Amino acid sequence: MFTDTTEIVSLKGINKTYNNNITALKAVDLLISTQEIIGIIGANGSGKSTLLKIIAGKLKPEQGYTKVFQLDAVQQNEQLKNKVSYISQDKALDPEMSGKESLHFFSALYGLSGTNALQRINTLIDSFEMNEFITRRINTYSGGQIQRLHLAIGIIHEPQLLLLDEPTSALDPTGKAFLWDFIQTYQEKGNTIVVVSHELDDIQQYCPHVVMLDKGEIVANALPHTIIQTNSTPILHIKTIEKLKDINNLEEQLLKISSSINIQFKEKSARLVFNNNVGPLKPLLFHQTIQIFAREQTVTECRWDDSGLANAYFKLTGKNIVKPSNNKNKKGKRNLL
User: Fold this and answer.
1) Exposed (0-12), middle (13-18) or buried (19+): which is 33, by Cβ within 10 Å?
2) Each residue of 197-233: pLDDT tens digit?
3) Residue range 93-106, pLDDT digits in tens
4) For residue 284, which of 95, 168, 317, 337 sits 20 to 30 Å off, Cα-Cα?
5) Measured between alpha carbons, how far is residue 321 from residues 29, 43, 50, 160, 334 in Å?
């Protein structure tokens, strides 16, 4: 648990259920310190978005308390208005307005006016490289352009705490790089950013503090390296040139080389999760596995993977984090940020 004396978010004993009696969060304790970049990860339905909304004061838990900048996130939410920004996956923007009109509209909502508002808007337009499209109506924007505008609006009042819910969804590598560069730059200015994402490689690379959620409970809360080192599980990935046919026979042969193994088959691949630390047996298991598959198929890839957050999450929960597929815009092109 992070216990920095400069904590700006403190959650204690948070329980949240919805009307259909689904538990979203259960007994959640969490501290977030100033100038952190913290990644929240978990499978769909694990409580990630609910957690962000509770920190933002948009949802009230049945039990527990949420303090943000020493204020009650729900009861004193108006006082937190200019310190916190929650940027959801839903981009509720008026499609008939131009981007610039939207920036002026939201600047007024946050009490900016006159020269201050104009300077802030112009700075954001330049920083987010929006000059080419900012005067057009939003309904003509690409997905990436909407994302840039959405982020600019979210920080127009320069919040000290920024809560981002799946900000990289549907972005290509260029867009993701732009976003993470923005996050790092914003953190270096003294701000705190909380990011919910399925992009585990990015979370591992950019977030020094990672929280894993499963069924509404925190199952890990530490440095990504610590989580990986503590929960590493040997996984062997195999790919074949054609579709696997005799699955039952393959499984029978694989269980002969190790009884403590979880096997997942797809059409042209298999994933072998070893429940025990195989250590020095890795080369032998690698060789035996290739031999088993080669009797039926040409093996195109065989590799060990025991060093990522996805691996650690699987060991902690027994499930995979499903990564959303990349959406495409109407022209079939991938979105850029």
Assistant:
1) middle
2) 988 999 999 999 999 999 999 999 999 999 988 887 8
3) 999 999 999 999 99
4) 317
5) 22, 5, 17, 30, 23
